[in-house]
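Proteins fold reproducibly. Take a tokenised chain:

. . .
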Amino acid sequence: MNTQIFKYQQPFELESGKQLLELEIGFHTYGTLNKQRNNVVWVCHALTANSDVLDWWKGLFGENDYFNPEEHYIVCANILGSTYGTTSPLSVNPATGLPYYLTFPDYTIRDIVKAHQLLANHLGVDSIEVLLGGSLGGQQALEWSIMEPNRIKNLVLIATNARHSPWGIAFNESQRLALSADTTFYNNTPDGGSKGLKAARSIALISYRTYKTYGVTQQEQTDELHNYRAASYQNYQGQKLVNRFNAYSYWYLTKVMDSHNVGRNRQGVERALSTITAKTLVIGIKSDVLFPIEEQQYLFRQIPKAALAEIDSFYGHDGFLIDTENLTNIISSFLKTDVKGKIIDLQQTA
């Protein structure tokens, strides 16, 4: 299925006060909005994903999966600044006729959600039955549930947080240091910073998996003194991202993640979370070193109508993309449950 494009041909004001003169949003839809208009499942994707959720979240989304186009109207929008159809640093600035590159304005999670809202209006989606996302996608879903509580009925937050941590910001800054150490990053060409992007992705991978994951999957089988499996894996995964992404989008999106703070200009995080009216499921991964389980436990305690599930995953943070059978069991159980106050009985192991 090809990416659809929504063009918003008015100035798009950002939280910073700066503007994009025009905005394009790439998105995918699957299925049909029913007569009751109560079958919308909106997915917010993570850092380097795209809007084709049936491609990258197989096992949870698909023709034969829990969220399927036969029953649900599934929407996923490519996020602002990404490279898959939405206005980004490689887009042409109408004011100059040249790509933005590093003149692209800084923006935040709230700006991404504001773009989602424009698309929802365009699609005639007044009510979202299930809004969900993991990692950066969870940050978007959480923001949306605060910005527009009446539109969201059920909220599913996976491996995410209320405010990006100093630990997470440190990882992102280390990746940006890698990008800026590549002198081609300042050449303003589509492939500028490619070597830096490869190194940045290698840094990120360490936070996505765990000591145990590498110990099992990259364990040496010989006594060689070079060509280690873990080293080859880092190089392979770094190049894999270079082949499908660009350094400028990555630079800005890591900064977007750093900006995440639901309490900004809302009298603090706890006050902001207390305004959520959606029935909420928070899913944490016990082995996650990037978004530790304490961050999901905090969300569970502060959101009024919340349930908490904790997964034991071999894959660390990436478990939210891989352990789809567990996610299916947890989410389906939650959506059948009438949450009155707090429930914490949706435990799963992998």
